[in-house]
Amino acid sequence: MVVQLVWAAWLYPISKVTLGNFQFALFILVIVQMLQYGTNVHSFAAGNFSVFDLIRYMIFIALVEELWFRGILQDNVGGSPLVGICVCAVIFGLYHIQQGWGTVLTTTAVGFLFSVARACGAGIIALTLAHGTMNWLNNSFLPPVGLRIEITWFYAVFALGCLAGGSLLYIYYKKRTLRVT
Fold it and tell me: For 48-93, what is each residue's pLDDT tens digit?
């Protein structure tokens, strides 16, 4: 991850690493956490606060992935913004293939949300904060202890929820920008 971070920082212009419209990244975080905690049973008392894990998730996972996928890749995929969003989402999902096909499906859906937020004006820093916070909450602070629904239903509900949230955000943003211009 350190090599990926250095390489991405070298390839991606520092002037593009901005906060941007943070509300879009916050919207993504809320959608993902609602879907995840709505379908999982959590042991809230069992969470562990770890500053080291938070820093690790923010810098060595979230920042690296946001620079690569929503920065370098999404900024350089030709065609329409929708093509860039879809390509980034699929590649982001496949990047997590070592965790299984269910994870590929869910990370593709989350990647779609993050890519839509980027297209709507969320900056790399805002997306990094949302992404790192999401990873930290899900893995360190509020780990899931079990699903309330079957795993197949979880994958379907989670993916459809992310796609619906991203689509609504994209439609909202498009309508808002059309009124301004």
Answer: 667 888 888 899 999 999 999 999 999 888 778 889 999 999 999 9
Q: Where are the alpha helices (DSSP H) in the chain?
A: 2-11, 22-39, 51-55, 64-65, 74-76, 81-95, 101-119, 124-136, 151-180
pTM higher than 0.70: yes
CB 153 within 8 A of CB 49: no
Q: Which residues contact 125 (CB under 8 A, 6 or more apart)?
A: 17, 18, 19, 20
Per-residue pLDDT tens for 57-69? 899 999 999 999 9
Among the listed residues 59, 71, 54, 85, the one whose alpha carbon sits nearest the alpha carbon of residue 13:
71
Contacts within 8 Å (CB) and 24+ apart, 68-75: 68/4, 68/8, 69/95, 69/111, 69/114, 69/115, 70/114, 70/115, 70/118, 70/124, 70/127, 71/8, 71/12, 71/16, 71/17, 71/124, 72/8, 72/11, 72/12, 74/115, 74/118, 74/119, 75/16
CB 65 within 8 A of CB 94: no
